[in-house]
Design goal:
Radius of gyration: 17 Å
Number of helices: 3
Strand content: over 45%
Number of strands: 14
Helix content: 10-25%
Shape: globular
Length: about 260
């Protein structure tokens, strides 16, 4: 299995509604401000430690950056010795919409497991341009986000009280898809970082052989506590919050 699948299967696959165009009218996901935070996660593959992830969201006025850094641990580290560095830069518009600017994904690992994706977004022209391993240019309509920003978009949608969400998806190779999610209830979770009341979200549609579930914590401005993906008769991946490095605090660009 490739490095990207090992390190980001739970967080990136499960929370990856990547949009397919530049938003003409961005959804007001951040209308009530956006939670800056930093947190560590542990990713387990079939109950075996596989990777650690650090996710950090920071803003300076209307300019924000969401960064994810991952590295293999345990047996996966012995086999792959892999690292993933990923970031998305975006702006908050006056209505709380998210406007992506540029995205970078760099993966380094043993064997043939290196990967580099770089995307640039031009809201004025509606163009998305890739300058990574695969060079391409696309023009699409509607809300757009890169793969990492879309995960934040889902978190903000749940925080805003949405119960059914769908996103257009564009991947590093330019392929487009639609991901759909719905809130299915509430649940109390006890994890290493503490005990929290959560909102449970499931992915709907998609592959019948794969189940994806997520738990978001209102007490922590809805950052994800657990993301779990199970394949029928096969592998399971679970990413769990292990430590809150910086407590979530709401940022508003006009303050």
């Amino acid at each position: 299995m490739g490095m990207r699948a090992v390190v980001t299967m739970a967080l990136a696959l499960a929370l990856s509604p990547v949009a397919g165009g530049v938003a003409d009218e961005p959804v007001e996901s951040g209308a009530d401000g956006i939670p800056e935070f930093s947190a560590d996660y542990e990713l387990r593959r079939n109950n075996t430690r596989a990777a650690r992830l650090t996710r950090t969201l920071s803003c300076d006025g209307a300019a924000c950056e969401f960064r994810s850094e991952g590295r293999t641990v345990g047996i996966a580290d012995l086999l792959l010795r892999g690292r993933i560095n990923e970031f998305t830069r975006f702006r908050l518009d006056g209505n709380g919409g998210l406007q992506p600017r540029d995205y970078s994904y760099r993966q380094r690992a043993r064997g043939d497991n290196d990967e580099y994706v770089r995307l640039f977004f031009n809201p004025a022209s509606g163009r998305v341009t890739s300058r990574g391993d695969d060079a391409w240019e696309s023009h699409v309509d509607g809300e757009v986000m890169d793969e990492l920003l879309s995960q934040l978009r889902l978190m903000l949608a749940v925080r805003a009280g949405e119960t059914a969400m769908d996103f257009s998806v564009v991947e590093g190779d330019g392929e487009e898809d639609v991901y759909r999610f719905e809130v299915v209830g509430t649940e109390t979770l006890e994890i290493e970082a503490g005990t929290f009341e959560t909102v449970k979200v499931q992915r709907v549609g998609g592959s019948e052989r794969r189940t994806t579930e997520m738990w978001f914590a209102p007490e922590l401005e809805y950052i994800p506590l657990v993301v779990r993906q199970e394949r029928r008769g096969g592998e399971s991946y679970t990413a769990t919050l292990t430590e809150i490095l910086e407590q979530p605090r709401v940022h508003r660009p006009d303050q």
